[in-house]
Write a structure and sequence with these properties.
Elements (H helix, E strand, L loop, with lengths): L28 E5 L7 E7 L2 E12 L12 E8 L14 H14 L11 E11 L4 H15 L10 E7 L2 E4 L3 H6 L2 E8 L4 E5 L2 E2 L3 H33 L7 H13 L8
Parallel strand pairs: 4-5
Antiparallel strand pairs: 1-2, 2-3, 3-5, 6-7, 6-8, 8-9, 8-10
Helix pairs in contact: 1-2, 2-4
């Protein structure tokens, strides 16, 4: 395998990025819900060349028992990268980075889940990175959020996520692999679109205060766009599962109520 070569530029003289995108342009995103029959809920995301699967099991009985929480369910997130997901073969054993990202994803999702409805239970979220090309933690949150909704776990809202970074001094949305490796920093974030609450905010690299504020504003707008794609993926999944006898105006009205004006998944309290 030939060694990686650092690109000559990340932002061209025309203001375009290494892959031809504008600074505020996301990679092509494809969602699909209900892709695994064995799971209670599942989803995949293709974001550029990044490809991730997420599966949810539960709420169900928790093992080992010493992890039991008496007042709520335990959210257990397992993020793993396949050995073939990166150019240099990854060791199959869980890495420290994978354990950290598992915790980050769980913390980003907890604020929208009604875990208190299922004391002493567990909700398992398994995330597998099939191919990594930058932005895997944010893409994983996007897929896991859809898988939780597909499993019927009560939620206040879906959680969209994106990273904003700096390449050749320019703020860019949704970093690809080259920008992630050779850029000047990145700000992964996730929000609750219905309230604009931030559930994930990290920073790597150097940003001025003004750049950080602008990066967050760009991230919020990008997250809201991703949120619309998430809702549309759920609509397609629900429509494909509707029995023929229920494909009438009442079904369409219920669907719009669930995913349209209320903009919620699950029952809010």
């Amino acid at each position: 395998m030939s060694p990686e070569v650092k690109p000559d530029f990340l932002i061209s003289t025309e203001g375009l990025r290494f892959d031809g995108r504008r600074p505020d342009e996301l990679r092509p995103i494809e969602f699909k819900v209900g892709v695994l029959q064995q799971a209670d809920g599942s989803a995949y995301i293709k974001q550029g060349k990044t490809f991730i699967m997420a599966a949810v099991y539960g709420p169900r009985e928790l093992h080992p028992r010493h992890l039991t929480l008496n007042d709520r369910a335990f959210l257990r997130v397992v993020y793993r990268m396949a050995t073939f997901s990166v150019p240099d073969r990854k060791r199959p054993a869980p890495s420290r980075r994978e354990r950290e990202i598992s915790m980050v994803i769980a913390n980003a999702l907890k604020p929208v889940l009604f875990l208190e409805d299922y004391p002493k239970a567990v909700v398992d979220v398994f995330i597998q990175v099939i191919q990594a090309d930058g932005g895997t933690r944010c893409a994983a949150i996007n897929a896991a959020s859809l898988a939780l909704a597909d499993a019927g776990v009560p939620m206040r809202s879906l959680v969209p996520s994106v990273a904003v970074g700096k390449a050749d001094g320019t703020l860019v949305v949704d970093l690809g692999d080259e920008e992630d490796k050779y850029g000047q920093g990145d700000v992964p974030m996730a929000i609750i679109p219905t309230t604009d609450e931030v559930t994930l905010l990290q920073q790597d690299g150097s940003f001025t205060r003004e750049e950080l504020v602008e990066a967050m504003q760009m991230g919020v707008q990008a997250c809201k766009y991703i949120h619309e794609l998430q809702k549309e993926a759920l609509r397609r999944a629900y429509a494909s599962r509707a029995p023929a006898e229920e494909e009438d105006d009442d079904y369409e009205d219920d669907l719009e109520t669930d995913l349209g004006e209320a903009d919620l998944v699950g029952e809010d309290e």
